[in-house]
Amino acid sequence: MFRRPSITFRTTAFVTVVCLALVALDCWNSWNSRAEQLQQMSVAASNLARAMAQQADDTIKQADTALVGIVERIEHDGTQPAAVARLRTVLAMQVAELPQLDGIHVYDKDGNWVANSRQIPPQNLNNATREYFVFHREHEDRGPHIGIPVKSRTNGKLLVPVSRRINHADGSFAGVALATIEVAFFLKFYESLDIGQAGAVALILENGTMMTRRPYSTDMVGRSMLGTGLFQAYTTQGPAGTAEIKSAQDGVTRLNSFRRLSNYPLFVAAALSKDEILAAWWRETLWHTGGVTLLTLIVGFVGWRLVRQMELRSKSEAELLRARDALETLNKTLNTLAMEDGLTGLANRRQFDVALDSEFSRAMRNASTLALILIDVDCFKQYNDIYGHTAGDECLQTIGRTIASVASRRPGDLAARYGGEELAVLLPNTDVADAAVLAERIRTAVRDLEIVHAGTPDGFVTLSAGVDAFSPALNSGPPKELVQAADKALYAAKMGGRNRVCTAMRPAAA
């Protein structure tokens, strides 16, 4: 016959549950508050980086626009004394209108001064050895060039050079038009930004050269950032992203948000100190946790006085509760692993099938399109035969990472390992044309990896892809119809010589 637990046991359980619940709820609230604080600061840092990128882009664009007109004037009017005299007036007017400019200068093909915006032109100065001059002399590109920071030989200021090439009528090198932007102009803007006491902002060339930074030091200008965590995060995540990085400059751990300029090869970084971000959270958590701890101690003490003879049993029950929490965590982890391909890290076939049914239903409800790219690694069996299965696995891992970086840009997009060397990309709300463009980018990206494969005509690992898309609201067929159509297109791509993208041929609507 079932025996009801004693009042002592029930009291012990009640006191234990109440204490654990108070602690767990406090921890849960504190952790959520911490995550929310970091998320808010991540958004703030991202907005700050966006504003910095726009300011830098606008600043350089104004200077570059002035250079476009100057280059056209010189190439049309020449450098006769009368033309140079008029040009000097124009240069001075441009500098007066653009506060960021230190000066605008024109050099001939030998690096000698032709004209500049100053009232008293420098004498006996030659800039043929400057980085920007050497660049234009050796490159025929007519676009703008952002050079490494230089120190002015006339006033000692640190300057950001923006330059364009000047050509003779026959296209040969005729000189350089240069606009110099004061580093202090950017610094003045950065000083107006609220980044706390330990925050930092920076403007960096894509080749890793530091242009300027707050906190400011003249030693920082021109320093290489190639080996820093910030530069590695930027090159890994792309034109915009956020990362928690320990600064290579001062050792402070910051939440960094970086963004590339729209028109020029630079990027900005806005970094907020993690300690400052969490300072208020720490104060609130300590007070809150202190109160909860005190309340828990009171409840525990009263419970201990009531059921101290049950201490061992109470400890066992607490252990069981912890084991249950650990088991739930383990089950969640196992469930996550069950939806992921162990080799490539992409979604596995199971997750792909679930996502296909889900997105198919959503597309039917919303009367939108659903696209699918089926991808096959060309001559992969031969690759395994030549290089071995270990190399084949490494090849699939590399291809999987490449596809994930190119394809998974939107929340609903899914890159999956469909089976063996076949991969798939599911693209909600995408038509055939856009899907085909993405498939071509994936094919090109993998080809550009230049993974050597002696078993292909091209000599490198390549992909073939089949693409199809349709609107479930207009097609009564099941989701597998989309897979079959993409598979037929993939077959056509392989029969057509591999290393290509083919789209499914659908009959025209009646």
Describe this structure in words.
The radius of gyration is 32 Å and the shape is flat. The longest helix has 71 residues, at 7-77. The model has no long low-confidence stretch (mean pLDDT 85). The strands form 3 sheets. Strands 1, 2, 3, 4, 5 and 6 form a 6-stranded antiparallel beta sheet that branches. It has helices spanning 7-77, 81-97, 131-138, 183-191, 229-237, 274-307, 311-338, 349-366, 380-387, 389-407, 432-448, 480-495; strands spanning 101-108, 113-116, 145-146, 150-151, 158-167, 173-182, 200-205, 210-214, 240-246, 253-260, 266-273, 370-377, 414-419, 422-428, 463-470, 501-503. It contains 12 helices and 16 strands. It is of the alpha+beta class and 510 residues long.
SSE map:
Elements: H1 7-77, H2 81-97, E1 101-108, E2 113-116, H3 131-138, E3 145-146, E4 150-151, E5 158-167, E6 173-182, H4 183-191, E7 200-205, E8 210-214, H5 229-237, E9 240-246, E10 253-260, E11 266-273, H6 274-307, H7 311-338, H8 349-366, E12 370-377, H9 380-387, H10 389-407, E13 414-419, E14 422-428, H11 432-448, E15 463-470, H12 480-495, E16 501-503
Helix pairs in contact: 1-2, 1-6, 1-7, 9-10, 10-11
Integer average pLDDT:
85
Silhouette:
flat
Question: How much helix, percentage-wise, in residues?
Answer: 40-55%
Question: What is the element string, with H for helices and E for strands?
Answer: HHEEHEEEEHEEHEEEHHHEHHEEHEHE
Largest sheet: 6 strands, antiparallel
Give the termini distance in whole angstroms: 76 Å
Number of strands: 16
Radius of gyration: 32 Å
List low-confidence stretches.
none
Helix/sheet category? alpha+beta
Percentage of residues in DSSP E strands? 15-25%
